[in-house]
Design a protein that fits this description.
This protein is α+β, with helices and mostly antiparallel strands. It contains two helices and twelve strands. Helices cover about 20% and strands about 35% of the residues.
């Protein structure tokens, strides 16, 4: 593992081999959205697990951005105002996408093309905006990610 390991205030999950990090300020719904992704993916029969909630260690392994959980919070996810729950978790996984719930009146109706999130350890990930109010947030993510990957292959 790289010595350039950073503690990032974020939540990270893995769904069917795709690592997703949820970013935004405290109270923006990162954990809630991650939980929605996990439950929706499981209902679709996809393997899904938490890497870590609220804080993750991020580092580079060759060209891959990795997320690792602090063992003290393994398998714990906070649902603000409801409590802390135990969920299936993994120790670490590669990250492929960043998701933010942060939307504001200044945001255009359609976000900029090819938005990315840069990491302190180097590298960047495609950034997708998924409102917390989405009825099927993982479905929306899957459609956007698919279109992004398809466009990048062209």
């Amino acid at each position: 593992m790289s010595a350039d390991r950073f503690n990032l205030h974020a939540t990270a999950i893995v769904v069917d081999g795709t690592g997703i990090v949820f970013t935004g300020p405290s109270g923006s719904g990162k954990s809630e959205l991650a939980f929605s992704f996990l439950t929706e993916a499981e209902r679709c029969g996809l393997p899904a697990a938490l890497i870590a909630d609220d804080q993750i260690f991020v580092y580079r392994q060759d060209e891959t951005i990795m997320a690792e959980r602090p063992e003290t919070i393994a398998g714990l996810l906070e649902l603000r105002g409801s409590g802390i729950i135990s969920v299936k978790s993994v120790t670490r996984a590669a990250l492929h996408f960043a998701v933010t719930t942060v939307l504001s009146p200044e945001n255009p109706r359609l976000p900029e093309e090819n938005e990315t999130m840069a990491f302190p350890c180097g590298g960047q990930l495609p950034l997708l905006r998924i409102p917390l109010s989405s009825l099927t947030p993982y479905g929306k993510f899957a459609a956007l990610a698919h279109n992004l990957l398809k466009a990048n292959r062209s």
